[in-house]
Model the fold of this input.
Amino acid sequence: MRADRKRQLAEMNLQELRQVLIKDIRKIPTARVKKMLDSYRYIQTRIDSNLDQIQVLRSRMQKVTTTYHDAPGGGSGEDVSDQIGKIVKLERYVQADTGRMQDELTLVRFLIDSLDEVLERQVLDLRYVRGWRNWEQVGEELHYSAIHMKRVHGIALKKLVPLVEEILQKRER
Done:
């Protein structure tokens, strides 16, 4: 904790301190929701990377050939079937990882779509799925002020807290 913050907390009376702590505690669950929603862009990038990697692996598999030499001992040292086996194993891993990532994307979409208010869904979609970080831009797109967009965002996050906590509890089991 920064020294300024410590000094500020030390100078507060009990009632003020209680209000600050309650406000800080309320932020914690929404931080979990934000973290889950923020993962959308990273996951999408990782899926794209995995799909590129699968194409590279398939290309390599098509290029694998046996080389022969006149010298005793014959080939290149590594059997073609071993190389293909390694490539197939890597491809399966990448496909499994992509499947897990697509499940996470589906979860984020489910969270956003679970909100009843259209405006809340639109704000979260622009912020997390499309990656718009500028509240003014979000507000302009939806014809509201940036301050109102922040407010709607906060309300939407709070509505998602119980659902995210339930999901996290199920994952821990």
User: Anything to note?
Assistant: The chain has six helices and no strands. The chain has a mean pLDDT of 80. Helices lie at 3-11, 14-63, 80-113, 118-129, 135-142, 146-172.
